[in-house]
Amino acid sequence: xxxxxxxxxxxxxxxxxxxxxxxxxxxxxxxxxxxxxxxxxxxxxxxxxxxxxxxxxxxxxxxxxxxxxxxxxxxxxxxxxxxxxxxxxxxxxxxxxxxxxxxxxxxxxxxxxxxxxxxxxxxxxxxxxxxxxxxxxxxxxxxxxxxxxxxxxxxxxxxxxxxxxxxxxxxxxxxxxxxx
Amino acid sequence: xxxxxxxxxxxxxxxxxxxxxxxxxxxxxxxxxxxxxxxxxxxxxxxxxxxxxxxxxxxxxxxxxxxxxxxxxxxxxxxxxxx
Lengths: 180, 83
What we know:
By secondary structure, chain A is an alpha/beta fold. Chain A has helices at about 1-20, 20-40, 45-70, 85-95, 95-110, 120-130, 150-160, and strands at about 75-80, 110-115, 135-140, 140-145, 170-175. Chain A has 7 helices and 5 strands, in the order H-H-H-E-H-H-E-H-E-E-H-E.
């Protein structure tokens, strides 16, 4: 039973790191602390097991949930003309001035910037991620697609103009639901 | 009594599998709840076998606080991220 609990704890710890969703990681950590408290019990340390049960199951769960509430992501999808996104291309595109400006913008809005390279067009992206923007680069001109109800879109436009990003080289396209 | 303990240990492996494979988050939460109750049963049996009554205090604390934890997670998900 001791070996089984230890194996289960290791499995839960690995899963909590590997999972893509934060909320699942909270549940994995709950199960991890549960089995760890059983392990402490089997090692004849019931006082430690009691403390682990109190801290691990209740306090740290609530703490992680409050932390998750504070963690918000601003998602930009990035589509370039190349049909194939190579690693070199990815490295190169990280350095463009627009990406640097977007990093500054998201830092100002207290959001975490996330850039996803994609081949999809705006309707498919808007269906899955209603708050995301799409950047489209073609022949030196950048188009930024966003939903008009997104309150960040006007702030983004003001920010780009204020930071001296050349106004001729980008357009902001507000896509309504009915047009799609 | 040891046979029952082994049986519950076997069953708790099955509900641990639900945490690992569960496709949605609710399945994982359900598996966690099942696992928690089975571990409580195991600790109670262990207390009866060893004749140590302080293990029962631990089960009491765990059952109360584990309930609070599960309620908070489902509250969090249902209200879309507002605790």
